[in-house]
Amino acid sequence: MRPFDPRLTGAAGTARPLLALTVMVGAVATALIIAQAGLLARLLAGAASGVGTRVLGGVLAALFVVVAARAVVAYVSETAALRAAVVVKSQLRRQLTRQVFRLGPGWLNRQQPGELTTLATRGLDSLDTYFARYLPQVVLAGMVPLAVIARIAAADWISAVVIGVTLPLVPVFAVLVGLHTRAQTQRQWQLLARLGGHFLDVVEGLPTLKVLGQGKRQAEVIARVTDEHRRVTMSTLRQAFLSALVLDLAATLATALVAVEVGLRLLGGHIGYQQAMLILLLTPEVYLPLRAVGTLYHASMEGAAAGGRALEILADTPQRPPVPARAIGAPDLRRAEITLADVTVSYPGRHGPALDRVSLTIEPGARIVLTGPSGAGKSTLLAVLLGFAEPASGSVRAGGYDICALDLTRWRDQLAWVPQQPSMFAGTVRDNIALGRPGASSDEVAAAVTLAGADTFIAGLPGGYDTELGERGLRLSAGQRQRIALARAFLRRAPLLLLDEPTAHLDAASTAALQATLATAVADSTVLVLSHDETWSAWAGQRFQLRQGRLAEPARATS
Q1: Are 222 and 143 in contact (CB under 8 A)?
Q2: HSE-up of 57 (CA within 13 Å, CB side)?
Q3: pTM (two decimals)
Q4: What is the spatial distance between Cα 184 and Cα 169, in angstroms, rounded to a whole number?
Q5: pLDDT of 391-440, one tens digit each?
Q6: Which of 226, 54, 26 is closest to 140 using CA atoms?
Q7: In the 8-state DSSP scheme, what is residue 555?
Q8: Is there a contact between 80 and 39 (Cβ–Cβ < 8 Å)?
Q9: SS3 string of 404-448?
Q10: Residue 530 φ/ψ, nearest 5 degrees
């Protein structure tokens, strides 16, 4: 981590006026520090020399005003910095969410969900210290020493030279200690992300772990990772405390050196009392901002590391290139055929391509079943059609246009997809179905539910369509979630319907009913089904088989 990361302030956006206010307030604070030392030196020198109370009273009143002004300035500075931190955190969270959607499921599958969750919550919350305390102190550390040394030089050039020679010791020690603790802080953040990801996996797989009797073992793993994180955190804190000791010692020795030389010259009559008091009062103010920066540097490292990781994600580019400004909207898939020509898709770290020179023509209104063992490339083929995966070679064309040149949003508007594990979101049954077409009426939702065969079980729910499903729809069975996903797809009335194991959680009667619905109610749509169920063979117009990423010759289904 660098002492000052311009990427974070560059990403501040709307918070820049607040950060600019912090800098201006820092300049005012610098002037007030010098004014306070001058007034206090004058007050002490006047009291020692017997100046009248009227004069001292005016100086004392001015001193009170300056002290009050410093308190106001400190309040304004911290308030502006805290508001800037809130704005930056909100902005980074919004950008991070948009970027995850932009990068897509292909990128997300290569990440650790626990790390992203920790980053978007605890990680970005740690930026408070960076923006509210560390950055304002960096501003003061740049302004105060130079201004104070200039004021001391105007009063006594010898003391200014001594301070100028000893001042670099503080930042040098701070850099040396910072280099030692940087790797430790990075390791602390990585362990925290690992702990969050592992805990998330355990919570999601808790039923399976309980059935297999592995709950105690996983609890021991979490305890081990937690203990390692605790030890690294305590080691980082210990180094931070030791660094504060080193910085305080360097600043104290430098201040003592100035005090000794000023005291000796005061005894010899080579410097006045008020002048000596001014130098002694201002000297600690030279080193104080640098010491505070060193201390706050360690306190802000976690937030800066999290912010840096967020900026790295924001800098990632999606596999699919940006759509040109004048991209083709999308051909009408009710009339346009889709052609895959020698499509090859590879994933990082995987031996061999997921799809190997696959060629396939999907005609409008076709009923196609794609079979094959797990890992054969069926889901990758759907990912290509959905725009989640980019072919390494070959092309996918619709209506004669390469889909890479199409507007991806308009392309997906013509698709409906039911994955193997459909996602349910916190909300009502109606909300989850209406995701397929948010503006649909209640009658249209009810018609889609009937086509999916979900009307019976929805009617039996406590609140019917207004029943809250809760997180991930865990109140429903796997078959019920599948029916809601089918209703969501039917509601879209899309020209191309992509179904990945749509009857995996349905009984034989429900499977037959769904096949009849696909043959009649959505007969004008193109339907591509991925399934191991042999009953789909009689329904399909064409049947293909994928093995190790390669497509076998099509076979017409027998009726």
Answers
A1: no
A2: 3
A3: 0.64
A4: 24
A5: 888 888 888 888 888 888 888 889 998 888 888 887 888 888 888 888 88
A6: 26
A7: E
A8: no
A9: HHECHHHHHCCEEEECCCCCCCCCEHHHHHHCCCCCCCHHHHHHH
A10: -105, 120
338 or 175: whose pLDDT is higher? 338
Where in 101-207 does DSSP place strands (E)? none
Instruction: Note the pLDDT of residue 508.
Output: 83
- The chain-wide mean pLDDT, for the chain, equals 79
Residue 87 pLDDT exceeds 90? no
Residue identified by tokens 């696959």 is: 358
Residue 165, token pair as written in the block: 């020679």
Identify which has the larger pLDDT, 188 or 325.
188
Helix, strand, coil % over all residues of the chain, rounded to 5: 65, 10, 25
Find tokens 């009810």 and name the residue. 446
Structure tokens at 521: 């109610």
Question: Which domains are assigned to the chain?
Answer: 6-315 (1.20.1560.10), 338-556 (3.40.50.300)
Give the pLDDT mean for 127-136: 80
- Please tell me the predicted confidence (pLDDT) of residue 559: 43
pLDDT at 72: 93
86-115: buried (b, 16+ CB within 10 Å) or exposed (e) per residue?
bbbbebbeebbeebbeebbebbeeeebebb
How many of the other CB atoms lie within 10 Å of CB of 245?
A: 10
Within 13 Å and on the Cβ side, how many CA atoms surround 361? Answer: 5
* Helix (H) or strand (E) segment spanning residue 208: helix 206-211
Burial of 303 (0-12, 13-18, 19+ CB in 10 A): buried
Assess contact for 554 and 361: CB atoms under 8 A: no
Q: Which residue has the tokens 């702990």?
A: 195
Closest to 334 (Cα-Cα) out of 536, 497, 542, 498: 497
pLDDT at 321 over 60: no
- Please determine, for residue 214, whether its predicted confidence score (pLDDT) is greater than 90: no
Report yes or no: 143 and 290 within 8 Å, Cβ to Cβ. no
Are the beta carbons of 546 and 552 closer than 8 angstroms?
yes
Residue 406 identity (one-letter amino acid): L
Strand partners of residue 406 = 328
Output 181 or 459, whichever has higher pLDDT.
Answer: 459
Distance between CA atoms of residues 19 and 88, nearest Å: 11
Give the long-range contacts of residues 214-219, CB within 8 A, separation 24 or more. none
Coil, helix or strand at residue 528: strand
Phi, then psi, of 506 in degrees rounded to 5: -110, 150
Backbone angles phi, psi at 105, to 5 degrees: -60, -35
Tell me the Ramachandran region of residue 458: left when phi exceeds 0, alpha when psi lies from -120 to 50, beta otherwise.
alpha
Q: Which two tokens stand for residue 480?
A: 């019920």
State both tokens at 552.
């076998």
Residues 513, 544 contacting (CB under 8 angstroms): no
DSSP letter, residue 121:
I
